[in-house]
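Mods, move this if it's the wrong board.
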Amino acid sequence: MGDFCRIADNVKMGANVTVHAFVNLYGCSIGDNSRVGTFVEIQKNVSIGKNVKVSSHTFICEGVTIEDDVFVGHNVSFINDKYPRATNGDGQPQSEADWGVVKTVVKRGASIGTSATILCGVTIGANAIIGAGSVVTRDVPDDSIVAGNPARLMRKAVPV
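Not the wrong board. Structure tokens:
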């Protein structure tokens, strides 16, 4: 583990996981042989599979599942709330009781390009490729390449 990491006692890590400096992990699980770059936060109830690479400056919020063999580029952000608010209907600061997590799934072998934003409630299909800077607002089919804002189908991905 790198220096200057905040890794809570409730993090489940597989064998040979590499975690670099300035990382904040709590309540998540990370599978064997996965790598987490610098300046990454992975929140509670996130599941990361085996052989996953999470590049630096990435934010993975509660409710995200990333399956095996996924690449997550630099500065990727996941979102888990469709209608975020700072306060509830009474004007009081929101608590966890005021909203529910909307889950997101990234299937095996997918690649997410640098600075992509992944909205909640979507599934990114197996072996799909998300172009750099894309905003994913809906499901991405298996073996496809999407790009843009909002992300749109460009073509089918070439099998690896």
